[in-house]
Amino acid sequence: xxxxxxxxxxxxxxxxxxxxxxxxxxxxxxxxxxxxxxxxxxxxxxxxxxxxxxxxxxxxxxxxxxxxxxxxxxxxxxxxxxxxxxxxxxxxxxxxxxxxxxxxxxxxxxxxxxxxxxxxxxxxxxxxxxxxxxxxxxxxxxxxxxxxxxxxxxxxxxxxxxxxxxxxxxxxxxxxxxxxxxxxxxxxxxxxxxxxxxxxxxxxxxxxxxxxxxxxxxxxxxxxxxxxxxxxxxxxxxxxxxxxxxxxxxxxxxxxxxxxxxxxxxxxxxxxxxxxxxxxxxxxxxxxxxxxxxxxxxxxxxxxxxxxxxxxxxxxxxxxxxxxxxxxxxxxxxxxxxxxxxxxxxxxxxxxxxxxxxxxxxxxxxxxxxxxxxxxxxxxxxxxxxxxxxxxxxxxxxxxxx
Length: 402
Ligand code: MG
Ligand code: MG
Prior knowledge:
eight-stranded mixed β-barrel; 16 strands; binds magnesium ion
C-alpha cells in the first residue's frame, strides 16, 4: 500500500501529540476497517485482495491530502491521524467522508469491487494522552461495532474501557476453563412426532464459573468465537458428547442421534474435517448418529465454498442440520443443493405459535418448505401442548425442548 505501518504510525502520532499539546488543538485518531475482509479475500483471491488494499490506501490518502497521516495498522485496517481540528465533531465529519469514499466501487484486476467500511474514533487528549492508548481506544471503538455491520463509525467512550478489561479477564478465564474442566454438557431431547420416542439429543454447553456460577453460552460463545478459543472448546464438546453417549449406549440406552452446534469459526477452521474424523475413530461413535448444526448465516456467508465444505463433512458419513432456520438469510436455491438432512425451526417462531398468527404462519411455511425439499424439520423450544398440537398438525417431524 506504500503507507506507513503501525510502528511508524505511532511515531508520527507521538509527534502530532507534542504539537497539539503545544497548540491546544484537537487531534483525532480514526481507525477504519474494510468490512467482511475475509470473505472478500476468499472470494476474489490474494492478488485481487492486495490490489484492492492498494486502491483503498490510495483513496484514503487522496481524501486526507498532505496535511494528515494515513497508515496501515494491519491486514485490512487503516488509521488516519487528523490534527488541527477545532472540535471532535470535525473528526466525525472526516470519518463520514472516508467511509463514503470507501463505498465507491474500485476497479481492481478488470472488475469493479465495492466494499463497506467501519470506523472507530479516539480524540486527544480526552480519550488518551499517549499514542498507544489513542490507537488502542480507536480500535476498541471500532471493535465494538457489530461484526455484521458494513458501514458506520463510533467514538470511544470510557465505558468501552471497563467493558474491554472485563472482557479481557473473562477471555483469560475462558482459555483456562478447558483445562480446569469447568464446562459441562446438558442435553435437550428431540422427540419424533410419529413414534413419540426420543430419537436424538442436542448437546448444549454450560460454563460452571468458579465465581460467577453458571454462565450461559450467549455470554461466552461470542467471546470464544472472537478469540479463537471456540476451536478448542468445540473439540472438547464433540469429544465429550460422543464419549458420554457411547457410555449410555453401553449401559443399554437405544441408539440416539447426537446433535452438536458448530460455530462459524470452527466451520471455517481447516482442521474441522480431519478433527472430526480423528474424534470419530478415537471414540468409536457411529458417524450416522452424529448431526452437526450450522446456522444458515454461517453456511450462506460463502455459498460457493459451502458446497465443498458441506460435501467434505457429509463424506464423513455424518448428518448436517441448518440451525435457527428463518432468522438469517438463506438462498433457498442453494439450500436444496447442499447435503443437508434437517432444518431446525428457530424457537422464536415456536414460542408464540399458539397466540400469534404470523409466527404460526412462518412456522407452517418453514415446515412445508422443508418437507417439500425432503428435509426433516425439527421445531425448537417446544414446551406446551398447544405448540405440540399445532406443529403436529402442520406436519413437523420432530420437536425439541427443555
Ligand atoms: Mg443448535
Ligand atoms: Mg438452535
